[in-house]
Amino acid sequence: MKAMVLNQYGDDAEFTVTDVAKPSVSAGHVLVQVAASSVNTVDTMIRTLGEALPLSPALPAILGMDFAGTVVEVGEGVTGFAPGDEVYGCAGGLADLQGALAEYMLADARLIARKPRNLSMREAAALPLVGITAYEGLQRGGITAGQQVLVHGGSGGVGHVALQLAKHFGARVYSTGGGEAQLDLIQRLGAEPINYKTEQVADYVAKHTDGKGFDLIFDSVGGANMANSFEAAALNGHVASTVAMVDLDLSQAHFKGLSLHVVFMLIPMLHNHKREAHHHILNELTNIVEAGELKPLLDEQRFELAQAGQAHARLQSGQAMGKVVIDV
C-alpha cells in the first residue's frame, strides 16, 4: 500500500510517498481502508519535535491520528463491526500505532465507531480527536442544562465542537475570539461572542453573569490563559483545560474553590487504558451529529495524500478556519 512516511523528525522533516506492507488484521482489531484523515496540532508537534515528545513513534513513522474509512477485514473477537461498515475514530499515529496517512490502517475496535450517516468521509475524519476532547471536558466539568458556559477559543478545532456540544447539553454558551471572522463564526454556531482583545475578563463577567462568574469554562487555549479562566469562573465552578503545561499560581483557584479538569484524550491510546470509553463517546457523537446538533467545520483548502506536508503547513500557519483534512 501507499503511505506517507517520515524518515526523520524536525522543522524541515518531509513526508515521503512509500510502498509499505499492508497491515494484517489481528484479534480485537479491524483493517480499515482509509478515505480521509484530519491534521491536529499534536500531529505537527510529533513531526517537528520527534523524540522530545514521549508519545512520538519510532522512525520510519506513519502519522495521522484521525480517520474515516471503510472496514475491509474484522479480527477475532470483534462483534460490533463487519466488512463494508463506514467507521471513524482516532486510533493511530503515535507510539506503536500506525497512523492514517496510508491507504489502510489497523484500528483497535474499542477506538472507533460507526460514522455518522449525514457526514461525508472528510467531515467525519475531522471530528474524533476534537470531539472526544470536547465531550470529555464538558462531561468531567459536570455540564447541566441552564448553566452559563464559557468556551475559550470557540472558533478553533476543539473549541467550535465544545461550543456546539455545550448548546446540545442545554447550556447558555459564550465564547471568546479575537477577530471578526472568528467572532462571526462563534455567533453563527449559536454562542454569544466575546472579543478577548477588546474586553477585559472582569468586564465580560460583569456583563454576562452579573459578576458571579461562569459555572463551567472549557479552555481550549490554555497555558497562561488559564489565569483568565480562573478569574472568569464562579465560586465552586469548574475549569476544563486542554493545555495545562504551564507554571501557574493556583491561589485564585484555591480561594474560589474551583475544580480543574485536565483533558489529555490520548491516554487510552498511549497506555491501552479504558479504550472502550472512546468507542462510547464516538457513538454519542454520532447520535448528536445525526440529530443535527453538531457539525465539524472544514478549512476551505483541500489536500491529497501526497500533499500531507502542505496540509501540516496549512495548520501551522494559523490561517486555517476549521479542520484541515487530507483525502486519502
Automatic annotation (TrEMBL):
It comes from the Bacteria. Gene3D superfamilies: Medium-chain alcohol dehydrogenases, catalytic domain, NAD(P)-binding Rossmann-like Domain. One of its GO terms (cellular component) is cytoplasm. It is found in: Cytoplasm. It holds the Pfam family ADH_N. Keywords: Cytoplasm, NADP, RNA-binding. GO terms for molecular function: oxidoreductase activity; RNA binding; zinc ion binding. Residues 10-326 form the Enoyl reductase (ER) domain. Homotetramer. This is Quinone oxidoreductase. It comes from Pseudoalteromonas rubra. The lineage of its organism: Bacteria, Pseudomonadati, Pseudomonadota, Gammaproteobacteria, Alteromonadales.
